[in-house]
Fold this protein.
Amino acid sequence: MLFLLPVSFLFVQLAVLVLLPAIAGPASYAAMVAAPLFTAVVLAWRGRRESGPARIGWWALATALAIWSAGAFGNLWQELVLGRSNEMYAGSTLAFNLSAVPITFLLASEWRPAGRTLARAIDALLALALGVAYFLLTRAMLSQPGLPGSPAVSTMVWLEDALNIFICCGALARWVAADDSSERDLFRALAGYAPVYLALVAYNNHFLAGDPGSTVQQASIVTVAFALLWALALSGPPRAPVRRPRASLTRAVRVASPVLLAGALLIVSLFLIRANFAFGAAGVLIAAFGFGLRNAATQVRHIEHGETLQRERSEYQTIAWTDAVTGVPNRHFLDRALVGIWRGERRANQPLGVLMIDIDQFKRFNDRYGHPAGDACLREVAAALQQALGRPGDVLARYGGEEFIALLRDADAGGAQIVAERLRAAVEALKLPNPDSPAGVVTVSIGAASAPLKDANSASDVLAAADRALYEAKCAGRNRIRSVAPLA
């Protein structure tokens, strides 16, 4: 029911114009002040109900309408209080032009500001420069009496048309390409309002302003555009589900949107050069420098984003290759490590030592103490093995269950047996109770094998040999090492 309020406003305005012709003129001026002001209040209220970028967007629209209302009040003051008529007043024209700045900033700004502080600061700087350029251009064009039909006023009218068309196209593009529901709702309202405002203002500027017989009552038709935006702000988002736009369209609009502010500033500055070369040239430089700086900031952000993704990918890869219980590499990592080691050791013609390690009577340990104690035992054994392994190039991985594998680079059979004994002693030194083990504490049995890697099957052969040696160690009574003869 709230959307009936703007309809009621238009109905009251029309009734006063028709039924009370004696006050039709002042009432029209008052309506052109009140309509955008009431709309600004509604937009600000809508912004309070939103959050994040949507709140900022609605407040930007509210600011634009409030500035427009100030311009309309300037006309009211000049016409009704000071008694002037049929002129374009510098202060009012400035306000009407400045009302486009928050909207242009909104069209150029990225929807999700997180991590984009520098880019938004550049947008704000360009918007401020745009406002100053409009002020200087307006003052230069209206330095003499701004009578309708004069070349300066005609230029201003066409420039205002171009700006309004610019806003219409930008609002439509942002609405169509919006992939967020709150973003789509905001730009739907702006895209509905902007074409109506463009048509009514163009009609007023081109046909009514230059006609001596026109009245302010006719010009007050612009309140229809404000009432429409008022109604759209109150209507809320559409209830029917909206199809998401194509990702390519969204990306294209996001890339093109930042050009809006710099482009608008460039156009205004080029017009300003004819009236004030110094300030016009400064505006052109600011537009070029701001656009370049914003592109640089965007590139830096993309690089940082790429580096973040790479770090996250590395972290995920580390998680995927790490055993969750023990923290040492898992079997997937072992498979990849074997490929790399095979290529490296084959080129250097160096042997690969493999130790197959099994915790003695671990199933009985689990049955006696429970799985949490079993996991704790696995972690302590893995830490002891990792620390005793010694060389940075050697790899320890959990092979599955209570089994571990150690890959020893450039280790012959004798070297592999020495490392195996060091690992066995390190685990026994933990003195973790295990009544089912022959030693009364947690121990390991180790099978050792070594061979030069001549082809892709060599790695599998040496693993199989180490597994056979482990079986022999367990059959011989556990807590001991067995190694096989060097493989040819």
Summary: Residues 277-320 form the longest helix (44 residues).
